[in-house]
Structures are given as C-alpha cells and as structure tokens.
Amino acid sequence: MSAALLILLPLVTAIAIAFAPVRLARWIGLAGSIALLAVAAVVAIAFGHWTDGQFGLVASVSAIPEIGMSLSVGADSVSLLLVLLNALLMPLCVAGSFTAISEREREYYGWLLALAGAVNGVFLARDLVLFYVCFEFTLVPMYFLIAIYGGANRDWAAVKFFLYTFTGSLITLVGLVFVAYQYSLVNQGWTFDIPALTDFAANSLTLKQQALVLLALMAGFAVKVPLFPVHTWLPLAHTEAPTAGSVLLAGVLLKLGTYGLYRFAIPMVPDAVVEYAPFIAVLAIVGVVYAALVCWVQEDVKKLIAYSSVSHLGFCVLGLFALNPLGAQGSVLYMINHGLSTGALFLCVGMIYERYHTRDMNELGGLARRMPVWAFFMGFFTMSSVGLPGLNGFVSEFLCLIGAFTATPDAATGYPGVLGPWYGLIAGTGMIAAAMYLLMMVGRVVFGPLREPRGHDSHGHQAGALPPDLSVREIAILVPLAVFCIVLGVLPRPFLTAIEPAVEKTLAAYPMIVEEQVAIHDQAGQPGQPEQPAFAVSLTTPTAPSPVRTLESAVP
Amino acid sequence: MTASTPISLALALDVYLPVGIVVAMAILFAVFNLIATKLLGPSRSGQTKGITYESGMNPVGTARKRFNVRFYILAMTFLVFDVEIIFLYPWAVGYSQLTPRSPEATLFLGRIMFFLAASVVAYLYAWRKGVFRWE
Amino acid sequence: MTDVVAKLQTLVPEVTLLVGAVLAALLGLSRRKQVRDAVPWVTIATLLAAMVAVPFFNQLDGTTAAGLLMPMLGGTFKLGILAVAVLLCLLTVGLVDRRLEQAFATGRAPFDAMRTIRGEFYAFFLLSITGLSLVCSARDLVWLFLALELTSLPTYIMVALSRGSRRAQEAAVKYFFLGAMASAVFLYGFALLYGATGTLVLTDMRGTFALQASTGGVSNLAVIGMILTVLGLCFKIAAAPMHFYAADVYEGAAAPVTAFLAFVPKAAGMLALMLLLGTMGWSGHSMIVDSIGFRQPIEGLPQPVVTVLWMIATLTMTLGNVGALLQRSVKRMLAYSSIAHSGYMLIGIIAGPTTGLAAVLFYLFAYGIMNTAAFAVLAGLERRGEEIESLDDLAGLRQRHPGMSVVMALAAGSLMGLPPLLGFWGKLYLFIAGVQAGHVPLVVIAAVNSAIAAWYYLRLVGLPILSRPSPQSETIGNGLSVWPRVAGVLGAVGVIVLPLLLRPMFDTAALAVSGYAKADSPTAPAGTLAAKALASESLASEALASEQESAD
Questions:
Q1: pLDDT tens across C167-222, in order?
Q2: Which of A117, A155, A185, A230 has the highest count of CB atoms within 10 angstroms of its CB?
Q3: Which residues are C390's β-sheet partners?
Q4: How many contacts, defined by CB atoms under 8 Å, are there between A and C?
Q5: What share of chain A in percent tops pLDDT 90?
C-alpha cells in the first residue's frame, strides 16, 4: 500500500500540475516532491526488513491472470535506498529549477514529478510487466525535459537518448518474455512475478539459454548504465539537458541500468554471468579508463562531469560483476553515492550556467573570488566525487575495487572468482585519472585569477533574479546533499549492514555453483588434475594460481 | 501426395440433352436466318448503301464521339431491371411445383419478395437521383 | 425453414447495416439540407444499432454459429469493428460534397440530385463494414470471397469520391486494378484449395486436411493454393510483396478515407487469413522442445506456408518501417507505418491459436483506435480548404492547436508501442504469442523494427509539441466540422483509458478464437501423438463409411 503510494503520489501530483494555474505549478511541484520525501522517510523508518534482506511493503493486485500479470510491488533494502535517493533528489531538482525555467512551467514540473513516479515504479516493481512499463515510461518525461528545455542541440540529443534506450530495452523485453515462456513450459501457466522467474531461470535454464537471456538483458541495461561501446548518447544528453534533467539523469536514471543488472542479470542467469563476467568487466574497465581520458580534454564543465559519470558507473558495474558480496555492496553503495555527488555537481554547474550562460572552461576562471560559497560547494562535491577518504565516494569505490581484487579463483570467499588483481589494478588507474581531471577542472574554474565571459558585467541579464553568489534557496538545495555525503563517508556501516543481506540474497546462486564444481571434481576423484573448471574462463589473470586450490579452499 | 477427394465425373450425359437441343436450335436458327436473308431478301448495292450507317450519319471524322451521359444511365437502368425480370421466370417455374402454404413455399416467396424489395429500392434510388428525368 | 431463420438471426447486425446503407443512399438525395446533413448521423445510428444487436443475435455459446470454423468470432470481434467504425464515421463528417453544399446553400447552384454523392458515400461506408462483419461469420469459401469483395469494392469508389482532385481519381483507379488482380490471385488459390479438398466448407476442409496430414502430408495442390491465397490477401492487409499501392493510394485519398483503408480491408484480410490458415491448423497442438528450448512443430501448417508467412512478415515489417523513415508526407509515413503494423500482426497469425490469434484481434482493435486518432489530426485541420500533409505542417502545432498536438503525440506514442499506452499492450501480447509459438527470431526482428519505427514516430511526437511553428504551419486553421477533432480526442482518450480495461479486452479476444481450439480438441487433443493418430483413424473410418454409402 505504502509502496503504491510512493508510485502514485508523484503521478497524481503531475496530473494536478497539468491542470493547475501556471503560477502555482512550481509550488504544487515542490509540495508534491516534499510530500514524496516525507512519505519515503516514514516508509523507510517503519520498514522492518533493513537487516534481513527480505522484501517488505509487498502488495499485489492481479491484473491479467491469463498471462500471469499482476500489479505487485515490494521493496528490499536496496530498492528502498534507491527510492530514498530519488525522493531526496526530487525536491532539490524542483527547487533548483525555479529561476532556470521560465516558460512552459506546468509541463516542466509535471514531467519532473511523472519521472519521479516512474522511477519509483521501477525500483518497487515485483512484476516484470510493471517493471518494464515503468522502465520505458521514464523515457517519456526525460525526452520532453531534454527536448523542450535543453540547449541548442536538444532535438538531436533527446532523439538519440530515446532511440538508444528504447532499442535496447525492446530486446530486453523479448529476453524477459522468453524467460517467462520457459517458465510456462515447465509450470503450466504464465507468470511475470520477478522472484518466481528469477528462481526458475537460475535453476532451470541451460547455459545456452542463460547466455541468450544475458545478452538480451545487457542490450537494455548496458545502454542505460551506460557501458563503454553504447555510452555515446550520455554526454550529449547531459550537455543538452536542463540542470534538473541532468541531475535526475545522472542521479537516478543511470541507476535504472545498474539496478536492472543487479535485480535481473546477476540472480537470474548465474551460470552465464560466471561465464561472461570477464567480458563485461573488461567493457566496464575500458569505459572507466577511456571516459577518464576523454574527460581530460573536455572544455565544457558539464560534458566533463557527464563523461566522469561513464567512468564512475564503470566501477559500479565492475563491483557488481566481481560476484562477491564485497563488490556488490560497494556497487550498490556506489549507486547512491554517485547520485548524491554527481547530482550535486550538476546542480553547481547549473548555477554557474544560470549566471554566465556558458560552461566553457576557457571563459570561466577564479570564480572563488566572485562566489566563495559556490566555490566551497563545488570543491566539496568534487572531492566527494574523486573519492577523498572521509567522504562518501571513497567507501564505495574502495569496496568495488576490493571486490574485483579479491575475485580471484583461489580466494576463500565461497564465491566464484572470475576477475582478479589485474582488473582492480587497471580500473584503479581510472581513480587516479579522476582525481587529476576533476582537480584540474576545479583548479581552472574555481581558483586562479578571475576570468568571466566577455560582455558579462558581473550581473548577467538576470541581475534582478540572481545575486552574484548563491542565494539562500540555492544553498538550501546543496546543504542536504553535502550532509549526506559526509554521513555516508563517515558512517557507512549502517548502510552497509542494510545492504549486505540483500546483496547476499541476490548472489545466493553463486556459492552453489562453486559447490557444484567441487562436487563434480570430488566425484571424478581427480583432485590433483589441473583441469580448468567451467567458471574460471580464459580471461582470468595470468598470475592466478592453479584453480584446483580454489576448489580445495572453497570446501569448508 | 495424396489424391484429392474423388469427385464423381460419371455423370449421365443424357441430363444435358435438353440443353444440347436448345444450343443446337439456336445455332440452326442463326444459320437459317443468314441463309434465308441471302436467298430471299432483295439486295441492292451502291455508294450510299456501302457506308457504315445507312441512317445517313456520316462516319467521317473522329470515332470518339461523345454521347450524352444520359444515354448510358438510361441504358444501364434498363439493363438492370431487364436482367432482374429474367430472374422471375425460373422462380415462377420452381414455385409452381411447390406445395401451396408449405414452409418451403413460404420461404421461396420470402426470397423473391426480398429480391423485389431490393429492386424497388434500386428503383426509388434511381428515381430520386433523377435518372428518368430528361432535361 | 427454422434452419434458415436461425441462420438469418445471426445476420441481424449485417441486415441492420444493409438497411442503414439503403436509408443513407436515399436520404442523401433529399432536397432538404437538414435531411442530407443527417446522413452521417443515420450512419452512426446504424452502426450503434448493429452494435446493440450483436450480443443478442450472436450468442457466445456458439449455438447460433454452429458449423463455423471460429464460431465465437462474430459475437465478439464485431463489437470492436463497429466501435472503430463509429470513430471512422465521425472522421468523415463534413468531408464529402463540401463545395457542392456550399454552392447549394449560397444559391449559386440549384439543388441537383445527380451531383450529390453524400448518400452514396455513406452507403458504401456501411456496405464495406457489412462485408467486414460478414467475414467474421464466413462458413465457406464462396461466402468468404463475397464478403471480402463486399469489403473492398466500396472502398475503391470511396477513394474516388473522397475528394475532387485528380490524385484521388488516380489513386482509386490504381487501387481498383491492383485490387482486382489480388482478388484474382486469391480466387485462384481458393480454386486450388477446392480442388485439393473437394469441399468449399471451411470445417470440412479442416477435416480433409487433418486426414491428409495424418496420411502422408497435405497435398501439394493445397499448399500451392494456400500460398496463392495468402499472397492475394497480402494486398488487403497491405503486406509485402503486395504493398506497393499503399503509399500512393493512402496519399491520394482524403485523410478520413485513408484511415478507413488502413483499418477495414486490413481487418478483413487478417480475419480471412485466420480462417483460411485455420483449415490447415497451426502447429500449436503437438510440439517437441528442442535443445535451446524453442518448440518445434511436429505437424500443422505445411513448412512452405510457414516459410512464406515468415518471409512476408519480415519483409513487411522491414520495408514498412524503412520506407516510413524516408517520407516527408505524414500520410505516406502513416501508410508505410500501416504496412509495418501488418507485419507485426502476422507474427500472431503465424503463432496461431489461441494466444496468437487473440493477440491479432486485440492488435487490430488497438491499431484501429490509435491510427484513427492520428488521422483525425490530419482530417480535423486544414489550410484554406486543403488537407495538411507534410511534416512541416505539423511543426509547432502546439501553438495554435494544443489539443490536436497532444492527440497526435499520444497516437504516435501508442503506435510506437510506448508503455503504458494501448499500442504497447498489443505489441506485448503479440511478442508473448510469438515467443510462445517458438518464433523468437521473428520476435527479435519485430523488436528491432519497433526501434526503427520509434525514429519516425518520434518526429510525429516531437514536431507538433517541441518545434517552432514553420511558415506553413502558421496558416493552418480548424476544419469546417468539429467532429473529426472530436473523433481524435475520443481516440486519444481511448489510447490512455482502454489499458485500464485490459483484462476484459484480453478475455474477449481469447474468447473470440477459443471456439476454434474447442472445435479442434476432438480431432486433435492437445499433445500426444497417439491421441492424434486415434482421431485421424476415426476420421478415416468415417470417410471410408461415406465412400461405402456413395458406392451403394
């Protein structure tokens, strides 16, 4: 019930905005988003499954029994944390758009709230069709937000964004329907219940089928994340989107991709994941390094942050496909941290853009002299994004890398290790590069001699609307994000304990794979043979010792 | 592959005898007429007799002469009703062989009534459309 | 007698439509303007009356329609047809005789019954719907052929009547000649099917084919006949390789008639395909599961027929979508999109009962609604009496016609298959059916095609709502009649609201074709080969008995 409220409240608000007088639109939007945050907070406090990884808030209404579709919702700790992230960002986005958006306001705030509802729907769905409907529906508000309120090249950006994600997710749909069909073959009836299908697919599909399903899932989710070869829509969409659009795009929409991988790819097709995780990890690492290098040569601050998103999300995927609880925990935490710090960075850039109407680093410099408060926040969130110990980014990045490092075939984790130190090492260079390009950006824009765009008379032509430095409203937007960055950096323990059981449940199929391999080898009675087990594919590190030790150490 | 369901072709040809006689009579009638006119009719030849239309219309010039569209409409209307009348003959023959007041007879009557009603509607339509008006 | 009466009872909706057609034709010739203006409303009233009559005279227990291949089809799908027809009829209000009526009204010309065509137009409209409705209850090939022709012949004339321009005349002639050729092709197919089975009755054909299949396979003659039939019907549904006419004809006709062409003949063709392929039976009844988990048919539709359908479906989707990408005219774009949608629906046709056919019916209905809404925008707006056509005309429509821009966006979104709009559910249903029947590659092709389609549908969403008005679009005003726009709004509301009624609609669609599966079960009980062999044995013995009888 309360889960349904989390989905419906923003949607109802959106409809209300569409029919309200124009001047009330922003206030209704703000009230609705704050109400959403309040509901989410209450739900989170009352939530009883923070520590056991079970699903709570479960509710279900049968919709179309013929194909086993129902409107069922529910949340485990991971879902709820992501819902909270979404609910936190939403009022900030609404409040952050007050001065930036001056035309077609009703549509703007309506679409923002509709987006919030759809995103919550994705995180809370327990039915595949509901998940897919919400997943696809997020495209619509974002398409309009970019195409109406975006920059000069907005049409092309919006279309590219839409087509990339739409194409991918259609193939994902076919894959998921295939799973449901296989279920119907065995169980004499259709269902789209996600837990049921997940259990079924993990246990009953052959490796070949799982590989096909994994391919279909990656088609949709990899585009959304975005992974390396299909990331090109992201910088364009980010550069052209209005500030709030960028914040939500980076903050929650990209998480739909990683969440999809976490919720579907990992638990649904474990055998195929073990087989192909190295390939995906390589793509993630290429993304990390390549995007970091691209960041280095950017002149546009926003584009730089957009590419840094590609790089950061690479870590997230790497942690996920390390296939051990450490990496996965880091990955989930990374989803939240990236939403906070990158979202905040986009807000900061948006505030600059509103004042100077440029984001070109050649035209901006030394803004600390003009805007000391803004400079503080910019520096702070950059540090958070870089991964400075003590701030939030560090914890999750560290966990992801540890996950990858320890995912060697011989680690006594009980989980199949298919990555290894080399993966961690190469990805780690991305961290160093991140420090360099982000700090260089801060150095050029924030510090040094003051440099403002020519013709700018220190007021801009919105002189009446905006003070030179941040207004109270803008500070109020950034402070909550900063507070959460510190909390997550200093006290990650409660969050990690909440995530851990859920993650272990998601990874439940993997220890069994190890046990099966051990059992096969024991039965074969040739424990000394240096035979390659199925999960240790050729891409494992050259330094990895003989996999036999894995098996021995994995036996309790 | 398997043969299609056998359709009996062993039809007794004598069933078609009346049809054959009618066809033969038609041919004979035509041939007889042709020969008879050749033999009996007076025949003159000359330049005027040799032109296409004896009525005097000169066929010189384009053959694509346009007639008033009313000719066509009227001709079509005539044809439609004429052909409809033809259907009544076989119906009448069949009807006379049915038991009076039997369900079959009623059904038979109903069918032709529907047919006639359709003709009446067509007639009404043509009338309202102004097909019969010549102005 | 009672037999005939019972049969006639199932046709009460069609008879109602027929009476309406006669009324429309006569009332259109009245001297009084009010009476002439009432003709569209008489048409709509007739459609509604027929709709009311359907549940009374087409009982869903199948008793009134015994002996049909799909006995439930009439009682269910006719409702959908008539509902879409009401929308289509609203679209045409104020279309025909516009100049002439103005001349009559201003006194520039005296009333001349010979020149008015409104009554005829609506009569043809109703006759075409009658034909479509008759296809639902076709018992044999002759009935099917006549019903199909009754559906098509009026449309040829409607194209010519729809507007006075030469393009419409050209389109009509083109449509007529190609249509006649297609009819010849499928009539030849019918003849071969008759030759192969010795019967015209669909249920008997089904028995004969089952017998043939169990004794060495369906005869080659029947396979060739079926392929020719399918190719001929491709014209009706505007599928490759008979799709070439679509763009020209759709462009030439006035927008309301184009919407009509995109639904009525297509629905007739799809229903005919269902009935005809139903005589051979689908592969859905005895299957083996191969190593990848796809079900492979043991027997059913002969492989050549399946291959041809596969090729048609793939080509149709691809050519339709790629063709639409290249268009600058909205009508041509929608024409190509109509081709592509036929391709999607063919997936359901290939998948067969029950899910596949139900999905086709549902999709037809959904397509009728959303396509009509899209055309309503073109029909409801105009520039100095001329239809709007090019994409530039739509640019920035929001500024002056906000309502129509939203209608266009919703219709295009639904055609694209964007959740949660109506079109998405149709597509999902088709995908499920396709995967269920083991045609996963075909479904993947359809998914990729849907993505291609998104590209041009996005233009239809984006241009009206997002772009600046172009110089052309500044001069666009509302059409003479408000009703096309009302139809557009109704369609758009349907696109949003109907997904709430998803369950009853899916149920109805499944019910519509359930009669086929039921009738099927005695001859081929789902599954075991043994049962199937038994059934064919009993059929064979029956055939033997009848032979003996005839010998006696």
A1: 889 999 999 999 999 999 999 999 999 988 889 998 888 888 888 877 777 888 88
A2: A117
A3: C329
A4: 95
A5: 39
Among A14, A81, A5, smallest CA distance to A495 is for A81
Cα separation, C199 vs C67, in Å, equals 14
Chain B residues 75-104 within an 8 A CB cutoff of chain C: 103-104
Directed axis angle between helix C73-92 and helix C502-520, to 10°? 140
* CA-wise closest residue to C362 among C344, C376, C374, C339: C344
The number of distinct structural domains making up chain C is 1
Tokens representing residue A454 in the block: 């020519």
Q: What is the pTM of this model?
A: 0.85
Check: CB of residue A400 under 8 Å from CB of residue A389: no
Helix, strand, coil percent content, chain A, rounded in steps of 5: 70, 5, 25
Burial letters for A216-245: b for 16+ Cβ neighbours within 10 Å, e otherwise? bbbbbbbbbbbbbebbebbbbbbbbbbbbb
Range of the domain at C321: 2-551
Angle CA A238–A244–A246, to nearest 5: 15
Residue C293, chain A, CB below 8 Å: the answer is: yes
Digit-coded pLDDT (tens) for C224-278: 999 999 999 999 999 988 888 999 999 999 999 999 999 999 999 999 999 999 8
Asked if B129 lies within 8 A of C114 by C-beta distance, the reply is: yes
User: In this structure, which amino acid lies at residue A44?
Assistant: A
What lies within 8 Å, CB to CB, of A161 at 6+ separation is A139, A142, A143, A146, A233, A236, A237
Query: Beta strand pairing status for C287-289 and C295-297?
Result: antiparallel
Alpha helix positions (H), A102-206:
105-124, 128-137, 139-149, 154-187, 194-204
Percent over 70 (pLDDT), chain C: 88
Measure the CA–CA gap between C387 and C391, rounded to whole angstroms. 12
End-to-end CA distance of chain B: 67
- Listing DSSP states for C27-39 in one string gives HTT-SSHHHHHTH
Q: What residue type is C251 in one-letter code?
A: E
Q: What's the Rg (C-alpha) of chain B?
A: 25
The partner residue sitting opposite C451, judged by closest CB among A137, A143, A163, is A163
Phi, psi torsion values for B42, nearest 5 degrees: -75, 145
Question: Does C452 reach chain B within 8 Å, measured CB to CB?
Answer: no
What distance in Å separates the CA atoms of residue A380 and residue A375, rounded to the nearest whole number? Answer: 8
Looking at the DSSP bridge assignments, the partners of residue A446 are: none
Q: Which residues have C-beta within 8 Å of that of residue B82, sequence separation ≥ 6? A: none
Q: How confident is the model at residue C384 (pLDDT cuts 50, 70, 90)?
A: confident
CA-atom Rg of chain C in angstroms: 24
Q: Does C325 touch chain A (CB under 8 A)?
A: no
Alpha-carbon distance of C7 to C1, in angstroms, equals: 10
Per the CB < 8 A criterion, the answer to whether A458 and A452 are in contact is yes
CB < 8 Å & 24+ apart, contacts of B45-51: none
DSSP 8-class letter at A69: E
Q: Using omega within 30 degrees of 0 as the cis cutoff, is the peptide bond preceding C420 cis?
A: yes
Q: Do A70 and A62 touch, CB atoms closer than 8 A?
A: yes
Q: How far apart are CA A301 and CA A342, in angstroms?
A: 12
* pLDDT value at residue C63: 58
Mean pLDDT of C379-392: 84
> Tokens in use for A91?
């009022």
The CA distance from C432 to C421, in Å, is 17
Tokens at residue C200, please?
């015209």
Tokens of A46: 């009352």
Contact A327, A505 (CB under 8 A): no
Judged by average pLDDT, the poorest of A294-303, A526-535, C19-28 is A526-535
What is the pLDDT at residue C449? 93
How many angstroms separate the CA atoms of A109 and A26, rounded? 6
Domain boundaries of chain B, sorted by first residue: 5-43, 69-129
Pair of tokens at residue B96: 């006379």
